[in-house]
Amino acid sequence: MLPIIAALIAGIAFSFSGKPAQAYLAFSSKAQGWGVLVLVFLIGFLVGSNPQAMQNFAQIGWRALLISSFSVAGSILFAYFGEKYLTVEKP
């Protein structure tokens, strides 16, 4: 927990350094996107490398597949409409 708090404090201190923030924000946005993709890949890798999890996929059934598919679709739709209608334009 301490490294997380230290990184947060370092980020806040860095933002007050007077450097141009736009370049850092653009980089931060791209890094966050790639970070999420790496995490999703690693979760898929860990599930795929677990033989017990792979054997239980057949027992989970279509209902779990449908629930997870609709959850992902709902999240994507909410994110799309949230960005489209809730985003405030910068002056």
Task: Provide structural commentary.
This protein folds into two domains: 36 residues; 42 residues. It is flat, with a radius of gyration of 19 Å. The longest helix has 36 residues. It is built from three helices and no strands. The model has no long low-confidence stretch (mean pLDDT 84). The chain is mainly α and 91 residues long. Pfam families: Lys_export. Keywords: Membrane, Transmembrane, Transmembrane helix. This is LysO family transporter. It comes from Thermatribacter velox.
Outline of the structure:
The protein has 91 residues and is an all-alpha fold. It is built from three helices and no strands.
Labels describing this entry:
mainly alpha, 2 domains, single chain
Order of helices and strands: HHH
Cα-based radius of gyration, to the nearest Å: 19 Å
Poorly predicted residue ranges: none
Q: Major beta sheet, specifics?
A: none
Give the % helix: over 70%
Please count the helical segments. 3
Return the domain count: 2
Strand content: under 5%
Query: How many strand units?
Result: 0
Q: Provide the structure class.
A: mainly alpha
The assembly state of the depicted protein chains is single chain
The shape is: flat
Terminal CA distance reads 38 Å
Q: Mean pLDDT, as a whole number? A: 84
